[in-house]
Amino acid sequence: MLWRSPAEPVAGPRVVLKEEGAEVVKDVELPYPSFEMYRTIQRPEAAFSHMQEGWLSKKADLYTRRTREHLLAGQKIPAVDYLRAQYERRLFSSAVRSVLQRVDVLFLPTIPVPAIPVAQMDQEIRIEGVEVNATVSLLSLTMPFNLVGLPACSFPGGFTSNNLPVGLQVVGKAFEEATVLRIAHAYQQLTDWHRREIS
């Protein structure tokens, strides 16, 4: 489990799960992929899809400036960089799957910070004293599992002391989508976070 962030909800998910008979093990250590590796894989793949369908050339005006820039940047990433990133992804995937041999699922926040205003998405924010790009921070806890293709489900997990909603995610082993969905559903049956309104 990963759980050292300002986004920790008021409700204790560990307590909720333990009360229902789950064995909650101590935190596990996971390697963390570089965002550069993710970007080197994601951008060319996205650019290829949009070029293949002709969307980017025929409907460029329908894209936001930022999305257009990302897709155009993806067209310029050298093949050798893409292949190196794929090699790094295989190593990372092996390490994550090794951790999942010791536990059934991983349970962690969906994002490491409370909700960020849209106007601040391109700005730097501080997480535990470290300055990071707001957009990068929002991807930081879901991106690793997208990279390795593991099933994950995000669901409402509580509120911060400032009454901002917090998401939780459960990540499972390959092809164990049913387990992931069963745990997420069980958590929602035991809590009412998904029914509460933001005031």
Key descriptive features of the protein:
two-stranded antiparallel ribbon, globular, three-stranded antiparallel beta sheet, 2 domains, disordered N terminus, alpha+beta
Compose a concise summary of this entry.
This protein has 199 residues and is of the alpha+beta class. It has helices at residues 13-19, 35-52, 55-58, 65-74, 79-99, 134-139, 143-148, 177-190, and strands spanning 105-109, 124-127, 130-133, 152-159, 165-172. It has a 3-stranded antiparallel β-sheet with strand order 1-5-4, covered by helices on one side.
Write the layout of secondary structure elements.
Layout: H1 13-19, H2 35-52, H3 55-58, H4 65-74, H5 79-99, E1 105-109, E2 124-127, E3 130-133, H6 134-139, H7 143-148, E4 152-159, E5 165-172, H8 177-190
Antiparallel strand pairs: 1-5, 2-3, 4-5
Helix pairs in contact: 2-4, 2-5
3D architecture notes:
The model is unreliable at 1-7 (pLDDT under 50). The chain is globular. The chain has a three-stranded antiparallel sheet, covered by helices on one side. It has a two-stranded antiparallel ribbon with strand order 2-3. The protein is built from eight helices and five strands. A hairpin with a 2-residue loop joins strand 2 (124-127) and strand 3 (130-133). It is 43% helix and 15% strand. With 199 residues, the chain is of the alpha+beta class. It has two domains: 12-28 and 105-190, no CATH class; 29-102.
